[in-house]
Amino acid sequence: MNRTTVSLIAGTAALAAVTGFATLSSPKAAGTAGTAVALPVERTSLLCPQPSTSDIAETSYTSFTPVTKDAGSGGRAELQAAAEESDGKSKGKGKGKGKKAGKPVLEPGEPGKPATGDTSGGDAPALVGTAEGEFAPGWTVQETTEVAAGSGRGLQGVNCSAPDTEFWFPGASTAADRTDYVHLTNPDDSAAVVDIELYGKDGALDSTLGEGITVAPHSSDPILLSTLTEEKQENLTVHVNVRSGRVGAAVQALDDKLGGDWLAASTDPSGSLVLPGIPKDATAVRLVAFAPGDSDADLKVQLASPSGLITPAGNETLHVKAGMTASADLGDVTRGEAGSLVLTPTDTSVPVVAALRVVRGKGDDQETAFIPATRPVGTRATVADNSAKGTTLSLTAPTRGATVKVTASAGSEGGEAVSKTFTLKAGTTQNVEAPTPTGLKGTYALTVEHVSGGPVYGARTLAATEDGVPGFTIQALPNDRGMVAVPEADQDLSVLQK
Fold it and tell me: Fewer CB near the last or first residue (10 Å), C or N of the chain?
């Protein structure tokens, strides 16, 4: 096999590893061997969990792909219903037989314009989505659900995620007033085998029911955490490890008194973490962290405020014992200002995962959302389903000053895209006045692009108060991984001899 062919295979393998499900065509132009060229992803997949079992749930889906240079033309994106499991949904073991999804639930029309769809009731299925060609780079799908009453009432939102083989969820619970499910969705033609491990304040919880869970092809399986262990713990870390195949995973956390929301996976274990976008009117913030290795972690806790980094009084550091979940109640740490939590090692860097549980409101009028540690915006990040009112974009530059460009897309039912540039000072968080489309009708997407300076982290809050209850949900803006660096070939591959 010739060296150029080897380089192409290596580049394609690297792309698949980054996106979870991607293909790439040959570079269009010749280059120097060993150099890299950034090319748009040409195929990708996203998985949306079953939104709710409530009969009064109202769910909307928004699909959006930003316009990407050199993405070519053509292709398609669609979301299809995953086959529901026939049994075993809450027993800790997936036993149903899946089948390929049928008619698409949602088919976007063109890049640069959001496409929306709605469903209601408790029978809405999980969705399996695929995007190809010009629809693939940066493809984003938002699932937003309103539940007017009952456990988990309020606004629940989640970015549909790419399939993977490992997930960490600090901030889950098996407490008496919580009902938490791990939703596992398998997009492939073969079954996936998954282990679910639970870690509390004293280490791993005894459970054999989380071992060897089978998720049938093209199906979704919600696993009730309280069926995996008899222990009732307020703060848990859930580890989803896929033995074979791949799945999408998210935790739905429903509280009898504090509403509920989706807990997305924390970014990969790291010595330093950023948890962006704490609402300025948060009345209670809880930090939950876990060190998956063999060493304890000592973390410096700081709040990136509009004026700079602040150390919360009484919570200057957090000690996380190896294999144990640690937590700290930070109260109303933002004190009426925008804020993001920044965790750094006090001495030796030890990889950790972390998330925040955020509460707004008081008394009986409270609602909950979660903020996991996330990756930086990087080159570009997008979040969909924004509206003219109730959307807050929070941006953080924890180490160095930075400049970003924020683009509001065309509206789903009309309007023209608008862009604005923002400069962030080092160590600060800003709730920026994000642009809205000219002549907006419907909802729109916000795309953040890094222009210069240090790393930037972002989060978007959607808020909708109903009957005095401040419903809200928060989604982070990690890099969309729509571009990948691939080694260039010595020559145009179309002239290679077989």
Answer: C
Q: Give dist(CA 326, CA 236) in Å, integer.
A: 9
pLDDT band at 489 (very low <50, low <70, confident <90, very high): low
Q: What is the pTM of this model?
A: 0.89
pLDDT of amino acid 34 = 59
3-state helix vs strand vs coil in the chain, percent to 5: 5, 50, 45
The whole-angstrom separation of Cα 59 and Cα 112 is: 23
Give the span between the Cα atoms of 323 and 204, in whole angstroms: 7
DSSP tag of 271: S
Nearest to 22, CA basis, from 5, 36, 40: 40
- Backbone dihedral angles phi then psi of residue 295, each to the nearest 5 degrees: -115, 145
- What sign results for the dihedral spanned by CA atoms 347, 349, 350, 354? positive
Please report where in the chains the tokens 């995953």 appear, as a residue: 82
Hey, is 467 helix, strand or coil? coil
Hey, what are 95's tokens? Answer: 């036993």
Q: Is 402:375 a contact under the CB 8 Å cutoff?
A: no
Rounded CA-CA distance 318/352 in Å is 12
> Is 468's pLDDT higher than 80?
no
pLDDT band for position 385 (cuts 50, 70, 90): very high
Alpha helices in 310-404 (DSSP H): none
Q: What's the one-letter identity of residue 244?
A: S
Output the pLDDT for position 24: 37
Instruction: Please state, in angstroms and rounded to a whole number, the distance separating the CA atoms of residues 41 and 24.
Output: 6
Query: Can you tell me the distance from the alpha carbon of 20 to that of 43, in angstroms, rounded to the nearest whole number?
Result: 10
Q: Which residue has the higher pLDDT, 237 or 365?
A: 237
Q: CA 80, CA 176: separation in Å to the nearest integer?
A: 35
* Residue count of the chain: 498
